Amino acid sequence: MKCKKCDSPKTVILRKKDYYCDDCFMVSTNHKFRACIGKNKVLSPHENVLIGLSGGLGSTVLLDLVHHGISLENTKKLRIKPFFIHLFDDNYKGLAESIIAQCQKYNFDVYVVHLAAYMSPNCQLPEPNCIPDVEENETRAFHDMLNSMPPSAATDFLLKIKRSLLVQYAKLLKCNVVFTAQTTNTLAINFLSNLAVGRGSQLQNDIGFCDARDEYVKIIKPIKDISIEELKYYVDIRQLAPVYVSDIKNGSMQSVISAFVSDLQENFQATISTVCKTADKIGEPNNEYVAHERCNICESDLQTKDLKLSALEATNLSRTVSFGNTELKQNLEKNADFLNNFDDFNSSMFPLINKYLCYSCSRNYSEMNQSKLPLHIRNKIND
Amino acid sequence: MTESLNISIQFGGGAELLFDKIKKREVDLPALKKYLPDCQREKWTIRELLLWIKENLLREREELFLQGDSVRPGILVLINDADWELCGELDYELQNRDTIMFISTLHGG
Amino acid sequence: MPVPCRGGCGNNAVLKRPKTGDALCKDCFFWAFETEIHYTITKAELFNKGDSVAIGASGGKDSTVLAYVLKTLNQRFNYGLNLMLLSIDEGITGYRDDSLETVKQNRDDYEMPLKILSYKDLYGWTMDEIVAQIGRKNNCTFCGVFRRQALDRGAAMLGVKCIATGHNADDIAETVLMNVLRGDIARLKRCTAVATGSEGSIPRVKPLKYTYEKEIVMYAHYKKLVYFSTECVFAPNAYRGHARALLKDLEKIRPACIMDIIYSGETMSVKEQVSLPMQRICSRCKFVSSQEVCKACVLLEGLNKGLPKLGIGKSSKAKRMLEEYHAKQAQNETVLEDVVHYLNDTSISDDKGNKNCRSKKDSNKENTSNGETCSKNNCCGGGCRSKTNVDVATSNKKLDMLLEQYGLDDNSDEKNATKENGVTDTASDHSEDETPFNGQEEDDTCSAACGGISIGF
Question: Which positions of chain A have pLDDT values less than 50?
C-alpha cells in the first residue's frame, strides 16, 4: 500500500481508507491547521496570540504546530507572537510541571496561573515557567464556591471560569486573539452538554470556530477540524507526550454524556464527525461582537430570541402554580386568558435572568451557595 | 425478633411484561439477615427489595428493569401511592403492609 | 416522615415535580398539571373558539391523558372546541388491534366520536403484509411515512382545523438529541415548535409540549385512566433508544434538563446558508412533500412493483431506480395511471366505512413480467388492487440486479461500515447538499420514523 500523495510506503491510515506516509501526513495536518486559521481571517500579521495549554492531546499537538509554524523561515512562516498560559488547580501540580517542561523543549515561556485567580478582580502576570504560590484562603474560597454546586453546574461553571481567565490574561498580555486546543472529541461532548444545560443560543461561540463574546478578545479553535485519529498519529510521529486530566466532575451530566459519546462512537464511527458537522450549521452567519448587555459570568448576549412561549415561561409557571395560589385560581376561573397577561410569575427558578445572567448561568446560580461567588461579581449583580 | 414483612408489589405501565404479566402480588419477605447474611443493615430497604425481586420474580431482560443497584431510569417507583423521591428512594425502610408499585414510562403514547 | 404539599393546602405531598422539585399533593398536582397545559394552549394560541380538533389517539398514555385533559379544559374554560378521536390502524396483529380496543374505550369514557383509518383502506397494505413483503428492514420507514399521511388524510376527512398529538416534553427533548446525533439540521430546526404545519396541510399541535412523561404517567395513575402499554412488535432496538437512554440518565441527575434541552432547541438558530428542503406539494397525491413525488407515493409504488428498496435512501436514487425499471420493462401506462388515480382519489372510504376497492384485474393482467392477479379472495370481491402477488423468484432477480447496480447490496457490510443506523459518515465523500439524514440507510433498526412509538420494552 502506498501513500496516496507520493508513492512511498504507507505508515498512516485514516478513516480506514486514506493512506499516507509520515511526511505527507505531517504536511497535510499542518495544512489543516494553517487553513483553518487562514480561511477565517482572524489574524493580522505579527498578532499577539495567547495560547491556552491543558497538557492534553490537542494542546500538545497545537504547541508543536505553533512551534513548527513560527520556525519556518520562508513566506509560510506563521506570523504570530505567541504567549502561553496554563490554568491549574492544586491537585494537578504534576501536570503543571510537565507543561512547563513541554514548553521548555521549544524554548517557550509559559505562565502558570491558579484557577483561584478568578476570585479577585485584578489579575497580575506571574513569573513565567514556575508554579506560583497561591494564598490558601483564596484557593479555599475557590474550592468552597465550586463545591457548593452540584457536579453538573460545577463542571459547566468551571468552563466559564477558564474562559474568563483566558480573556483577562489575554488583555494583560495585549493579545486580541486566544487559541484553545479543543478537539473534535471535546467539541462533540461540549455540544451535547451545552444542549443539556440550555445553552442552545450560545453554541456558535462555545463550539464554533470563533467565540466573539468579548469586545476585544476573540477565542478561536484552530485545530477543531483535526480528528482524534490524526492527533494520535501526530503525537506518535513526533514522539510527543500528552498528559490528560479531565475537567468533568463525577456524577455530572457531562460525565454521562462523555461516556455516551465514547460508547456510541465505538459502534457508529460517524457519531463525532456528524455531531461536529451539525455544530457548524448552527448560529448566525456573521458572528461578531455586538454591544448588548452581557451575562456577568459567561459574557453571552442577554438579548434573547423573541418567543411567545418558551421553556423558560413554562418553568416559571410550574413554580408559580406549584406554590398554590387561591387568588390565581379564582382569577383563572373568571377569565380563561388570565395567564396570558399575567406578569407576576414566580421567577425564583431563574434568579437575575436576562438582567445579569443568562438562562444557564442563572440556573447554576440558583443551585449554588450564592454568597460564595467572588465579591467583585456579586457587586455587579446585586441590585 | 425479626418478623417477616408482608408487602404488596405491583407493576404497571408495561413493567408487568417482565414479571409473567402479573400486576399484583403479595409477598412475604424473610428476615433480612437470613436472606442476605452479609448485609450491614437491619431492615429491608428498597435497595434490598430490588435484589430480592431480581432473584425471585424477574423472568427476563434484567437490564430493562434494573440499572446498577437501582431501577432503570424511566421506571417510576411509588411507595404507598407516593413518589419514592419523597421517601428517600433506595434508602426507604419497608414497613409491614407497604405497597410498592413500579410503573414503566418507557413506551409509546 | 411525610413531606407537606407546597400548594399550601395542608395535605401531604404525593409527588415531587421534576421541573421545579416542588412537592405536591394529588389535588394540587391535578390543578397544576391541567393549568400548565391550559397555559400552553392559550399562550401559544393553539386553538380558536369553535374549532374542530382531531386528537391523534393511539390508546397509549400520552394520547389518553391528552384526550382527558382537553375534554376537561374544554369544559372548564369554554374553549368551545369540537373534539374527536382519530386513530390509525396499521394492521399489526397483536399490537394495534389491542390498543384500538383501548381507544374505543376512550371513545366511550370521554364521549367523543372516534374515526379509525386503516392502512389497508388507505394504501391497500397492512403493516403485517408490508413486513411480509419487505422483511424486517426499513419497516419503520414505511409505517412512519404512511402514518403521517394517514393522519393528514383522516383529518381532512373529518374536516378538522388541526390535529392534536400527545408528544410530551421527553419526546421533544429526545428528538432534539437524536437530530443532533444524526445530523438532521432541518428537523432540528422544526422539532421544538409547538405547532407545525405548512401551506396546504392541516397543522399539528402539541399541547403536552412542556409536560413531563413522569407527570403524565402519575396523572393517569392517580386519575385511574386506562391506557395500553407495550412495544411495537416490529421495532427491535432502535437508534432512538440510545437518545432515550441518554435522556433518562441525564434526567436522573438533573430533572430540569429536559426543559433545558427544549430551551436549547427553541433558542438555537440555524445558519441561513444551510439549504433546508422546501415544502411543496406531491405531484401525485397533492399532499405536502419536500420532493416532487412524496415519500408515501414512492414507497407505495415500490411495494406495488416489488421494489421494496424504492424510497429507502436518497430520493435521487429512487428516481434512478424508477427510470431504470421503466426502461427495462415494457412501458405500462395503465399500472402507473392506476396508481396515480388511486392515490389522487380522496374518497377512499365513505362514512360507512365501506371499502372503495376498485378492480384492478385488467391492469394486473397487463402488468409487467412479474405481475399476476391478486389471489386474495377474502378481500372485497376479488378484484383487489392491494397487492399484485409478485412472483418471488422474478422479483428477486430484478431486485438483485438493481441492488447491485446501485450498490444497495444487502451484503456489502464493508461498504456500509460507516453508514450505520441512521448516521452517515460525513467524513467520506458526500456529494449532495441534502442533509445527511436524507441519505440514510436504515438497517435493522427502527429510528422511530413512525414518529409515535418509542421503544422501551
Answer: none
